[in-house]
């Protein structure tokens, strides 16, 4: 018997997708097992209370923003917890880290321009473009490797399809046999009594 060296949580090329009614039934069962919403909202009694600075008074009104300059280009974007696009595309910190890296690179470029003049600034831009090209090449290589892994996964799953379907038929047959034996035993006991 071969040693199983890998496992897949799903077999998308073999398994059939679930029907909407079975998904709704599964979600209803899960929702039935979850505690009520007020239990999740209240902290555990053994947890210490939050610090006083956490629940302090709200700050006074912020200063009026400048209307002549668009300051949004120079600020980190505000994370929107209700945004579905941000939640499904990437973790919430990734856009913020990207914006912070962009802002720090922008500050570095402006300091080069102020300290060393236009030529140093242009050289810095050329170096950033070279770094960007290297990242784009690395991204293309990773995408190629990912596509190769997916093709290999599909090939392996399609190769094991007959074995999986045979195992499923054998399992269903064994369960059907057990049920028939159980029904036959109950019927025999009833006839004797």
Describe this structure in a few short sentences:
With 193 residues, the protein is an all-alpha fold. It has six helices and no strands. The relative contact order is 0.06.
Structure overview:
About 65% of the residues lie in helices and about 0% in strands. With about 190 residues, the chain is mainly alpha-helical. Helix 4 (about 95-115) runs antiparallel to helix 5. The chain is elongated and about 105 Å long. The model has no long low-confidence stretch (mean pLDDT about 80).
Compile the SSE list and pairings.
Elements: H1 20-33, H2 37-41, H3 84-89, H4 93-116, H5 118-159, H6 161-192
Helix pairs in contact: 4-5
Primary descriptors:
193 residues, single chain, mainly alpha, elongated
N-to-C span = 47 Å
Structural class by sheet pairing and helices: mainly alpha
Question: What count of helical segments does DSSP give?
Answer: 6
Radius of gyration (CA) equals 31 Å
What kind of oligomer do you see? single chain
Please tell me the overall pLDDT.
Answer: 78
- Write the H/E string, N to C: HHHHHH
Please give the largest β-sheet.
none
Broad shape? elongated
Total number of β-strand segments?
0
Low-confidence stretches: none
Strand content: under 5%
Helix % is 55-70%
């Amino acid at each position: 018997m071969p040693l199983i060296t890998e496992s897949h949580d799903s077999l998308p090329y073999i398994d059939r997708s679930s029907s909407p009614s079975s998904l709704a039934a599964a979600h209803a069962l899960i929702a039935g097992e979850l505690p009520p919403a007020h239990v999740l909202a209240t902290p555990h009694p053994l947890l210490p209370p939050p610090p006083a600075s956490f629940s302090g008074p709200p700050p006074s009104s912020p200063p009026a923003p400048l209307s002549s300059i668009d300051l949004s280009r120079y600020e980190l974007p505000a994370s929107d917890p209700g945004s579905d696009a941000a939640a499904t595309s990437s973790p919430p910190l990734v856009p913020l880290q990207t914006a912070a890296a962009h802002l720090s690179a922008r500050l570095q470029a402006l300091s080069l321009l102020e300290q060393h003049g236009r030529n140093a600034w242009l050289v810095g831009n050329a170096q950033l473009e070279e770094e960007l090209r290297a990242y784009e090449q690395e991204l293309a290589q990773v995408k190629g490797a990912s596509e190769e892994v997916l093709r290999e996964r599909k090939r392996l799953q399609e190769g094991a399809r007959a074995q999986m379907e045979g195992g499923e038929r054998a399992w269903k047959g064994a369960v059907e046999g057990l049920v028939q034996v159980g029904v036959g035993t109950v019927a025999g006991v009833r006839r004797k009594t």
